[in-house]
């Protein structure tokens, strides 16, 4: 096999691994309408911050999402850099399949509610649920 064919195969395997988990698919679809802070994703999924971070790292490894840091805060969005034809096809495939799915529509409503809440409030809520400081309320949003 040529090096390029191996790279394509590895990309394919990373993408299929990333999308083989319902939580990761939900996180991926949640980013369809724009960037979200990790605390917003934690609130949406109802999981521990460390668990969500692990899921996001798998999506990032597959180059489906990218992140940026702002102080202690991490924001995720669908990848905009280095979009390969495979990644572009993945976006189209996933979003067209799930467009009319009832649970996806419900999740989009929940995202809309979460993004309407001030980030400091989401942070406070996540910290209370986790029983520890997950994100700093002093950080500027």
Quote the average pLDDT. Answer: 88
What is the number of E strands? 3
Give the overall form. Answer: globular
Beta content comes to 5-15%
- The percentage helix is 55-70%
What kind of sheet is the major sheet?
Answer: 3 strands, antiparallel
Question: What are the segments in which pLDDT stays under 50 over at least 5 consecutive residues?
Answer: 137-141
Work out the radius of gyration. Answer: 16 Å
The number of helices is: 7
| Strand line-up in the sheet with most strands | 1-3-2
Going by CATH, the homologous superfamily would be: Winged helix-like DNA-binding domain superfamily/Winged helix DNA-binding domain
The helix/strand class is mainly alpha
| CATH topology assignment | Arc Repressor Mutant, subunit A
Domain count: 1
The quaternary organization reads as single chain
What string, H for helix and E for strand, traces the elements in order? HHEHHEEHHH
Distance between the termini: 48 Å
CATH architecture label name = Orthogonal Bundle
